[in-house]
Prior knowledge:
- By secondary structure, the protein is of the alpha+beta class.
- The protein folds into 2 domains: 1-32 and 195-346, Immunoglobulin-like (Sandwich); 38-189, no CATH class.
- Helix content is 15%, strand content 23%.
- It is built from 6 helices and 16 strands.
- The strands form 5 sheets. Strands 1-10-11-14-7 form a 5-stranded mixed beta sheet. Strands 8-9-16-15 form a 4-stranded antiparallel beta sheet, with no helix packed on it. A 3-stranded antiparallel beta sheet has the order 3-5-4.
Amino acid sequence: MAASLDDVGGIDPLALELNSPAEVGQKRGAASAGKSSHKRPKPNDDTLWAAWFFFDTYYKTVYKDDDPGAIDTTVFEVQFAMENCYMYAFRDRQDLSLGPGQLNSWISGKQIGESPYMFPFAVKDGYIRCHRLQNKKYRNLKNPQCITGIRKVVDPPVVAEEDARRWYHLTGRETSEIPGEEAEGYVEWRPVPNPSDHTSAGGRPIGKVQQLDSNSDRGRWLSQIGGVLSKHFGPVTAAKTIYEDSMGYLVKVSLPYVDKRTVKITWRNTTNECIIKVTATSIGGSGTYNKDGRIYKCTDPQAEIPRNGTLTREIHLPMLLPPKSALQASFDPVTAGMEILVPKLTASAGDFEIPVTIL
């Protein structure tokens, strides 16, 4: 539903999308994202099929131009990012995802039980594993494993109608939802690192920002950000503060250096809380800055304004919202931020009759 925006201080309100979740989204998994590393039971057929479908659908083989039958091993995907994308797709249905150890073992080619659903890019089929990646994005990973001969798809995949229905039934996601940069950077499912270590047990990179006490304020918000916002020293943009009274919540979010026309707000219910998600495009962090005919280059090693690109922030509220909740959002010109009003669920004025079907 569209958010209702007030005209604050003479500034024209902008039309922000504020979408309620689909019915299936209200039935998503019980576990919170920060607890995904617990030991899981043996995966069932749905779990293994969903894992196979995800990788088979969103990653495709790349063949040589001069030999269409030969896999091009000069292209590759980083397993670390592939795992993040998979866990991002199942972040609200962790009961249907493989555990970290199970996922790593399955991608390595191990068959789980008698299931026919194997990782679709096996070494025996020519998809060689290597450790040749030299990329600043993964500079804190020790020898990140790469899977050659594949690329993530860029266009919505064409899948059988029956498979699309099964995928939606299991995840609540349309097959057209291709994992993006936010999904590649989704690491909160990985084990929390020890500040004295250089990498976590799950291979999570630990830069200066992440070498923090997990009980610190900074440590708490690190698990709630994504996209380019997770790669800067802050929070400056998308910092939040929550206020409350008897009628609802007032959520204030800082949004300096963002394109206001790109701001989008969505919300969804898990089994025990409501999550409000703010998405926007950062426009204040380019490598160079032109002013008065001069060209400035960014030399700050710990720049606190995120680089240009998409950023996200999730805000967790300890309640559930009905599907037609009237949330409101408006820009505050004084603070370069946004205010989101979230009503609390009130007691009903009377009893509601439930139709009884006689079979």
